[in-house]
Amino acid sequence: MTNKQLFLQFFKFGLFTFGGGYAMIPMMSRVFVYDKKMIDEHTMTDYIAISQIAPGMIAINMANVIGRHLNGKRGSFIAVSGVALPSFLIISLIAALIPNILDIPIVVKAVQGIVIAVIVLLSITVINLLKYLKQYWYLVIYALLVSLAVFFFQVPIVVVILSAVFFGSIHAWLLSRKEVPHV
Amino acid sequence: MFELLLIFLYVGLLTIGGGIVAIPIIQQEVVSRGLITLSDFILMIGIAESTPGPIGINIATFVGYDQFGIVGAFITTTAFIVPSFFILLLSINTIKKYRQHPYVIQWFQYLKAVVTGLIMYATLTLVEIGFIAEQQTIEYKSFIILGILIMVSIKLYKKPWAIVLIGGILGILIY
Lengths: 183, 175
Hints:
The structure holds two protein chains of two kinds. Chain A is mainly α.
């Protein structure tokens, strides 16, 4: 795949995928594993897991590892630029076309409605994540505690993230000593 | 502008588990510093969720453009991507090697819980805004919109832009 084709392919992912990075995973798999047969299924599964573990956005991480797989480090840069550029252009255009949009009374009312819509959208995400967590009851409680700690006590998010590494390490250490049964 | 650059480098470093986690982090950093009003930020989330592309990039671009035009948008978006880009570029082989390590598996499990908690936190702040009116009274009209949107989302949960659009129209009609 030439760098130009790589760029255009990722530009398309950025332009046509609604719903963020999670929605991009199946599209990327379809194109590279099934249509173009450039990456085997096992490697792609690895890449999807790595993109979720590593810091950063999933769509960007996917572009990073797939770009590297196909065209080396330069491929990483090209794929990441390609997938981010449509967002950058579209949002800049929207922001340029509607400056001071909140000075219009009707927009203020619309925003109040959009707040409720965003609550619904975020709740859908939370429900999907809880579906995954529900097999580990202690993680569900931990998630609740995290949300309350940040909401009521303004605990900095960096502290919360470090706490996950801390508790995860303790859990792994206890498992390695076999003092707790596998839960 | 330098402050904005640092904020987004920091956000890029902390965003683990997908761009949606960036929402509460950007909110904590940008809104609480008074750079952007909460209602502006909500509008940005609404638009970011309903336009194509990674949601984190959409929000970063929006915040940057709002502050310093196209240059600001370029700075925030780049700063947001750069930390994780280089971390992953340099450490992909290490991550590949230790992905199945018991510690890494547990970190990831607990991080997933944190991600869930952070999105709940973002939702809670919006509930506070959406359901509590100026004199600390409950905004009952919001429940009507919520009820309609829940029914609509059962069919349209894969089309976030449609939910945002319907929410906006209902807001104009009802409030």
